[in-house]
């Protein structure tokens, strides 16, 4: 009797569960859709805009009939996947490279921003986008680079488990960090004689002048400004706006005081707030006066000569 050996060969395939049964899938003949936001050619941002400020928000975009509906068979993760930078799970602002700008995908009417994937969970069911509303928002997140641009194309996608039902697209734009023109001001203080400063604390006649902020860009609501002593003209009395003459001066025993034009005391290194002329831009100015003051008790230490000083004007745009 002859025995034959029969070799039975089989293969066992180990497949991941989600490859066997996807949690989310498109309905038949449906696929990824998109929201397309048309941006202006440039977006102007005042130079000192605080981080966290919304610098642009699109009008509400309402989608029409769009074949991008999907269904999910179980509880699943949802959120936004950032195409132009890092996706931080749960974050609501998505960085656009190293531009100092982030973007948000906001859903009216709640006004809430979608979170980075996996940001939230949702139950089983079916969803579509017909009639849905969307807003694209840009937020300043850091120092805006000089050539910052929002790229054209896809900024990111809405993700449901394994699929990406919707994308956020733009035509791109350029971000311009702007400030007012603040030209240097040279004040001619005139000529005086020693008899104008007979006693310690005597003042000369005031000279009035303006510090101008010209061609301010749109979007500035307020100016925050201050006056700072310089290395060449350090403070003699910061609380009364008095600085020493600089080292190029040959006159001795005098200092320079700055005040507001209404004779209000101007304190050095203190912030002052002034409302911008209009939110659409324009010109503004600060009205000031300057005068020399004697700070030397001894007549023997007084000396005639050139008297010069410098004070720095620092302005921020809010």
Structural Rg: 33 Å
Low-confidence stretches: 1-20
Task: Give the end-to-end Cα distance, rounded to a whole number of Å.
Answer: 101 Å
Strand content: 35-45%
- What's the number of domains? 2
Mean pLDDT: 88
CATH topology of the largest domain: Immunoglobulin-like
Work out the number of β strands: 25
Main beta sheet: strand number and arrangement? 6 strands, antiparallel
Number of separate helices: 1
Determine and state the CATH class of the largest domain: Mainly Beta
Write down the overall geometry: rod-shaped
SSE order in H/E notation?
Answer: HEEEEEEEEEEEEEEEEEEEEEEEEE
**Helicity level:** under 10%
* CATH architecture grouping of the largest domain: Sandwich
Q: How does the helix and strand content classify structurally?
A: mainly beta
Quick overview:
With 318 residues, this protein is mainly β. The chain is built from one helix and 25 strands.
Structure description:
- The chain folds into two domains: 30-177, Immunoglobulin-like; 179-317, Fimbrial-type adhesion domain (Immunoglobulin-like), CATH 2.60.40.1090.
- The protein has one helix at 17-20, and strands at residues 24-26, 33-37, 42-46, 54-57, 61-62, 70-72, 76-82, 94-95, 101-107, 112-113, 120-122, 125-127, 133-140, 149-150, 153-160, 163-170, 173-178, 207-216, 222-229, 235-237, 242-244, 254-260, 272-275, 282-294, 311-317.
- Helices cover 1% and strands 42% of the residues.
- 25% of the residues are buried.
- Strands 4, 5, 8, 9, 10 and 13 form a six-stranded antiparallel sheet that branches.
- β8 (94-95) and β9 (101-107) form a beta hairpin.
- The chain is rod-shaped and about 100 Å long.
- The N and C termini lie far apart (101 Å).
- It has 318 residues and is mostly beta strands.
């Amino acid at each position: 009797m002859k025995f034959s050996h029969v070799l039975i060969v089989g293969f066992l395939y180990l497949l991941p569960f989600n490859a066997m049964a996807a949690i989310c899938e498109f309905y038949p003949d449906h696929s990824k859709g998109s929201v397309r936001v048309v941006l202006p050619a440039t977006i102007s941002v005042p130079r000192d805009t605080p981080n966290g400020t919304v610098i642009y928000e699109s009008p509400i975009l309402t989608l029409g009939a769009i074949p991008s509906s999907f269904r999910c068979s179980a509880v699943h993760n949802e959120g936004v996947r950032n195409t132009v930078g890092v996706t931080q799970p749960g974050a609501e602002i998505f960085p656009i490279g190293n531009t100092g700008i982030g973007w948000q995908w906001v859903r009216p009417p709640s006004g809430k921003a979608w979170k980075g994937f996996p940001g939230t969970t949702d139950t089983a069911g079916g969803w579509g986008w017909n009639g849905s509303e969307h807003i694209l928002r840009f937020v300043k997140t850091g120092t805006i680079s000089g050539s910052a641009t929002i790229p054209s194309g896809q900024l990111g996608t809405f993700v449901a488990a394994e699929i990406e039902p919707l994308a956020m697209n733009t035509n791109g734009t350029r971000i311009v960090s702007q400030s007012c023109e603040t030209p240097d001001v040279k004040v001619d203080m005139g000529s005086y004689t020693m008899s104008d400063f007979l006693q310690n604390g005597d003042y000369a006649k005031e000279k009035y002048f303006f510090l101008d902020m010209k061609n301010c860009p749109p979007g500035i609501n307020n100016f925050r400004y201050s006056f700072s002593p310089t290395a060449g003209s350090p403070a003699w009395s910061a609380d009364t706006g008095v600085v020493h003459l600089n080292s190029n001066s040959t006159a001795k025993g005098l200092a320079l005081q700055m005040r507001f034009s209404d004779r209000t005391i101007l304190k050095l290194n203190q912030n002052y707030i002034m409302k911008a002329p209009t939110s659409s831009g324009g010109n503004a100015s600060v009205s000031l006066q300057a005068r020399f003051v004697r700070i030397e008790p001894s007549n023997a230490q007084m000396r005639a000569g050139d008297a010069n000083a410098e004070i720095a004007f620092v302005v921020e745009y809010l």
